[in-house]
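Lesson 9: reading folded outputs for more than one chain in a single document. The general rule is that every protein is listed as its sequence immediately followed by its structure tokens, and records are never interleaved. Here is the first one.
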Amino acid sequence: MIYNDKPTNAWDLYWESGALESCITQSDRLAGLAMEAFWGGFAESLPKSAKIIDLATGNGSVVKQLLSSVSSLQVTAVDIAMIQPQTEDVHLASATFVPNIDITNLPYATCEFDAVTSQFGAEYAISDHTRTSEMVLESSRVLSSGGHLKFLMHNTQSALLLSNQAKLREYDSLFASSGLLPTLLKYKEGDASLYDMESAGETFLKLDIVKTKRISGQIFDAITYFLQQPRTKLLSEHITNTLRRIYAERSRLQQLQKAALSESEMIRIVDDFKACGVAIDISEPMLVANENGDKDILGWHILGQKR
């Protein structure tokens, strides 16, 4: 089997790369500045030694923003994946990172934390929008009376989701039956020829879809390299590892698409928090400026306090 389709596998591989962000890249300068203000302002509103739990933390993007603003905060950062935070970073060193933690079943005491945070993470744990999410129940349970909750969650109308949809169309074309990547797998196993690979590549290039350098370009470069090498066990392992990472990235984007919340789904989550004793003061789209001077939806912003 090339790829284990367990959802966390895609994130294990992603965080293994050392990435700090999963959705906001270094090139998103304005979004990055917005996040600094978003989390920095929240950190400064809390008591200086407040205990915070960051849910679905990844490699600690929120943690870094919080501790960059107020270094005395006590931050516990959890994720179900095998996260790989760069703890030599001065802003991450004081936090406690805990992998393999299911945020629908947190191993922490009731009312243990003064604040609960999450950025593009908690919504992945919601599998059924027809009933109260265990994520809502657990994040409310561990939040102390008077404690604050601040989430940024995927929005189905965000610019990020629109970009993600285009990437998925590109990946889906690469994975199509008899397409380029299935043919590469057959080539690895000795069931496809060089001619088959060339034909699959030509067919893909004729498709009426957007083909990016970051996805199609890099895959074509890798395949060109593979086809120039003698067929050895080492080459087979190299192809397997490459396919494994491509499968994982596609899975990660599919999960992002599924996790995004519509307005009606967000209303349900807000009502669920209220039922758990968390008064929601803000539940609205977060807008950020883009390079064209317009504003894009980044995600849903939820801010609340437990009564």
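And here is the second record, again sequence then tokens.
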Amino acid sequence: MLRNLLRPFILFVVFWLAPTAPAHSAVPEVLVTIKPIHSLVSGLLQDIAEPGLLIEGYQSPHTFQLRPGDLDKIHRAEILIWIGPGIETPLQRIIGQQTDKTVIRLGDDIQVADDHHQADSDHHQADSDHHHLHEDQHRWMDPYLVLEDMQRVSRILSRHLPAHVSTIERNLARLTERMQRLDQDIRARFAGPQTIPALLYHDAWGRFLERYELEMHGIVNPHAHAQPGARHLHDIEEIIKRRQTRCLMVEPQFRSSQVETLQARYELQIIKLDPLGADLPATADAYFTLMRNMTEALAGCR
């Protein structure tokens, strides 16, 4: 009788004294800033976890404004992956304050800041920031360049996910095969070096053009954070007349009266190119769909 009366009390004491579960889950929360990179990281983490995406829809990473929900995503993340200040300029300050998490910045000199690497990262931070602001950071426009980034990211993820190393390696091998097929398809579509009779509104495609030996007639707005001057626009109009430009490639993230003026004045074909895949679902397939859509759009200017 006494034993039955004491049983609830004994169970309460046992549960109260038992060690609590760790604050962090077995799989750390991963947050990626833009959709093309999110797509590739999703491929690396397939069958393990689904990374979060920070910048969605038609928001431009150049002018992105953080909302309370975005700040919550950043604070919850344990691993944060971004391109750098040349692309996500508004995020530079808040990301620099994330000293309690692993921050991976893509690039030729890929930066990793966490509890173990913070000192090394801080030592080179000023020089690296200056370098990144002056290089073309649209790295995902070159399949092999961004694949190199993903190889480095996979090694970092493996350190944080030791129980899933074999899955990450398998996913990287699958990603590599998909990237090789993508490269072959793009090369077959253009069949060698050529000039596309088009203007780009924004300078986001240099990596792609260089990789596949393509040339364009020029760039309407070479600086994402400022409008082109009158002299530059005059030069662009001279190019259109001299080289018989047929198309103007525009991005949904940018709106400009200059596009309408040039289209009306010279009867240019407007072709939409979206380097961020705003209309695409945020999946592991998004990057490959984005690149194939862009290839067809560029090849369609004749």
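What the second record shows: Residues 66 and 181 are 37 Å apart (CA to CA).
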